[in-house]
Write a structure and sequence with these properties.
The chain has helices at residues 38-47, 54-61, 85-95, 149-163, 165-174, 179-189, 193-212, 225-232, 235-238, 240-260, 269-277, 315-328, 347-350, 358-361, 374-382, 387-398, and strands spanning 7-9, 25-27, 72-75, 78-79, 101-104, 113-115, 118-127, 132-141, 282-285, 303-307, 337-340, 344-345. By secondary structure, the protein is an alpha/beta fold.
């Protein structure tokens, strides 16, 4: 994409720049507007618009690839986001036309959703034993929401607190108090002063727009990826190289914010588990590879996710951990089950193709290639594990009062 009049690429940069060459992207800051424009307003409105165009609906309902030979669909870790479930049912029908059985439960972040009589949610919480944020997947069959008022209130509190991180992130990018984090992030990403200032200008616009539209924004729009989406929408103005560099730097700031985000306002994992169990929940630990100590906590859970697109490195090891625990009888009458999660975020598929995160956009509801990996499959067979058996066993547990 050619550079717009507001920027100019320095000469001498190679097509595949190395760490030092990345610094040679030049930005003429005198020609980057500081005030929110009508164009900025339009960008902000577009990235927060949850309505689907006919083209987007067609993209959702008709996947580019189907899997007619997959007989069993186990999907217990995925996020519909703003995509209506009736469209996703059509997508699943087209993805797996030859399926014989399924267990499909959506797990939106800190918000209950229902699919064919099952309810699910992915909850942010923390483990006080090692002072780390963790996540839990809660699954229900026929949940009585009147009885679940306490858990629902806990989720609403968690959702609001988790959404507050966006404002801390934007302040770290734009406000004087975020200067130290900006310096650290700039050092980590080899970003120069012009790039830091460019992102600061855009973040200040985002904050102004957030405050201006606070009363009419969808509740689910308050996520860190709003910054990423806003920057991506500026590619037509500033070019790919500028925005690619801006994204790398902004992500480094986001990581610093997440590292320092206070855990004291999250509920303890044990509190979430106790309340969920009282309502007959099934509970699964997702991507434990990202927070190993949770495996030592011996929580009252039904299973452990041994693979998902963000956690692929130690799948065989985790399978062996589950099976060793089961052989030792650590979990009473209910052995731990082995799960895999596709961690599909359907909102990614609604974005313009040129703005999509290709790795996230490739994820699919119920598609977990590790089930077919020869080395992993060998471990599963030895231990008598299959999707069919997990579906049958977990469904029976969820059906218990």
């Amino acid at each position: 994409m050619p550079d717009s009049p507001t920027v100019s690429a320095a000469t001498g940069c190679s097509g595949n720049p190395g760490p030092e060459e990345l610094r040679c992207v030049e930005i003429d800051l005198s020609r980057v507007g500081r005030e929110v424009t009508e164009e900025d307003e339009a960008v902000f409105a577009r990235i927060n618009d949850t309505r689907l165009s006919p083209e987007q609906v067609d993209r959702i309902v008709n996947p580019s690839r189907t899997y007619p030979r997959q007989e069993y669909v186990l999907a217990t870790h995925w996020h519909p986001e703003h995509v209506p479930l009736e469209l996703l049912k059509k997508r699943i029908d087209n993805l797996y036309p030859g399926r014989a059985d399924e267990l499909i439960i959506p797990t939106q972040h800190n918000v209950f959703l229902e699919y064919d009589g099952y309810q699910g949610v992915e909850v942010d919480c923390y483990s006080s034993g090692f002072n780390r944020k963790v996540q839990l997947l809660l699954h229900f069959k026929g949940l009585d929401f009147e009885r679940a008022e306490v858990l629902s209130s806990m989720l609403r509190h968690t959702h609001r607190y988790r959404a507050s991180q966006l404002f801390e992130y934007v302040d770290a990018l734009a406000e004087p108090a975020g200067e130290q984090r900006r310096q650290v992030a700039a050092g980590r990403t080899n970003s120069d002063e012009e790039m830091v200032e460019f992102v600061r200008i855009q973040a200040a616009k985002i904050k102004a727009l957030l405050l201006l539209h606070e009363g009419d924004m969808p509740e689910d729009a308050y996520k860190n990826k709003l910054v990423r989406n806003f920057l991506d929408a500026l590619r037509c103005r500033f070019g790919d190289r500028i925005i690619n560099r801006a994204q790398v730097y902004a992500k480094a700031v986001k990581d610093l914010v997440k590292e320092a985000f206070s855990l004291s306002y999250f509920y303890r994992a044990s509190e979430i588990i106790e309340e969920a169990r009282s309502l007959g929940a099934g509970i699964v630990i997702p991507h434990p590879e990202q927070f190993w100590p949770i495996l030592l906590a011996d929580y009252d859970v039904d299973g452990i996710e041994v693979w998902n697109p963000q956690s692929q490195q130690y799948t065989e090891f985790l399978i062996n951990v589950v099976n060793r625990r089961n052989r030792m009888g650590w979990h009473g009458k209910h052995p731990l089950l082995i799960f895999m999660g596709d961690d599909c975020h359907m909102g990614e598929k609604t974005r313009p193709p040129e703005e999509q995160d290709s790795e996230k956009a490739a994820r699919e509801i119920g598609l977990q290639p590790a089930w077919h990996d020869f080395a992993i499959r060998k471990s599963l067979i030895i231990n008598g594990v299959s999707r069919r058996k997990i579906i049958e066993e977990y469904r029976s547990r969820l059906g218990q009062p």
